[in-house]
Amino acid sequence: MPETFFPEAYADSTETVPAGPFLAQTDPAHSALTRAYGAVGPNRPIHAITIERRALLADDVAIDILYCGICHSDIHMMRGEWGDQQYPLVPGHEFVGRVLAVGPAVTRFRTGDMAGVGCMVDSCCTCDNCLAGLEQYCTVGSTLTYASPDPRGPGQTQGGYSERVIVRERFVVKLPEGADLASSAPLLCSGVTTFSPMQHWRLASGQRFAVIGLGGLGHMALKLAVSRGAHATVFTTSADKEKDAYAMGAEDVVVWHPAATTPIPLVDQLVNKLDFLLSTIPSPFDAAPFLPLIRQNGVFVNVGAPGAIGGVTGGALWGQRRSLVGSCIGGMPETQEVVDYCCANGIRPQIELIRPDQIDEAFLRVEGKSVRYRFVIDLASNRAG
Ligand code: NAP
Ligand code: ZN
């Protein structure tokens, strides 16, 4: 059995352990039960359940979760669209909260600090990628915040649609003083997922950027690209998002329809113009209409659909030495960086705050493209005290 540190940690704590009807803090030396919101099968309703959080280890941080964003990945996973899952499953991989307790080996956090957690909670920490701060590409395989076997406890990891979590310190980021808590939550996934490729492929001031899909990731991509001084174009299938896109700094907005047989409007004016095109489309798509828009040495970065990308030909790529690439979230240093960057530059995700009992409805609205632009669950909203 690993050594645990709950009693000492709570003895030092000035915070009260939240007491809800589902929280049975009967034996703090070991695991603890916490209220969470999950489902017992694909396409089953999300409702309050009780889950067990493992005991606090020496380098662990216990967090009282306040706000958790809803990513489209949560929906893919809960619906079993990315393969069979083990249920009950509690999603949520962009959340912020208050540090309740820390193990004795923790150096960056103290009780009462504000902290955030993204898509990973562990990795080998010794492979070349982990040593380079690219834990998302850990060659052994990183541990996802939910639905991964938990290397530190029994069963699988469970995510942030819950009231409390225990996470290894390396995978926790600090929230800057004064950060708006609710709107910071989406930075932990949608922020870093769009920031990371801009850093890697060096999206620079004056370059031409375009994003396909103005959703949770897409609107963050737009705000980040504009903040870097790029000329931003938005491709949206939702004509009613046009005004918002301009308000967020887009210089051009193109309304298109994937199933249309006619060419995308104005697309001929964009041929060979884009330095950086980012797709956030959550389903398989046809890249053929978009590849010619990439200028010489430009990149088409897919952060959306993990499935098939159709319409890619060798000629479309070599024609202008174009690259079609992918990018997965971001490592822990970059996750801290995007949180600090957004806070310092006043970049905030546009959110709709909901209660836990509205999660099912929110899933449907994300799928229906009507969220503006990220749902965030207020996890403290129905605590009985
Ligand atoms: P989202 O909020 O649903 O946004 C996706 C947007 O894409 C929609 O708002 C819509 O924008 C557009 N869209 C939806 N269906 C479309 C279709 N069939 N054809 C063309 N456009 C379509 O989703 P999200 O949370 O931003 O996530 C986007 C995707 O990225 C998901 O598949 C998610 O799993 C994935 N993801 C990947 C990573 C990574 O590390 N690579 C990280 C997080 C999420 P318009 O209304 O403007 O057209
Ligand atoms: Zn996500």
Structure commentary:
With 385 residues, the chain is an alpha/beta fold. 20% of the residues lie in helices and 25% in strands. The strands form 5 sheets. Strands 3, 4, 5, 8, 9, 18 and 19 form a 7-stranded mixed sheet that branches. The radius of gyration is 21 Å and the shape is globular. Residues 1-29 have low confidence and may be disordered. Residues 71-73, 76, 189, 193, 213-218, 236-238, 241, 258, 280-283, 285, 303-305, 327-329, 366, 369 line the site of NADP nicotinamide-adenine-dinucleotide phosphate.
Question: How are the secondary structure elements laid out?
Answer:
Elements: H1 6-12, E1 32-38, E2 47-53, E3 60-69, H2 72-78, E4 95-102, E5 114-117, E6 120-122, H3 128-131, E7 143-144, E8 164-168, E9 172-174, H4 181-184, H5 190-200, E10 208-212, H6 216-227, E11 231-236, H7 242-247, E12 252-255, E13 274-279, E14 285-286, E15 294-302, E16 309-310, H8 314-318, E17 323-326, H9 332-344, E18 351-354, H10 359-367, E19 374-378
Parallel strand pairs: 10-11, 10-13, 11-12, 13-15, 14-16, 15-17, 18-19
Antiparallel strand pairs: 1-2, 3-4, 3-8, 3-19, 4-5, 5-9, 6-7
Helix pairs in contact: 5-6, 5-9
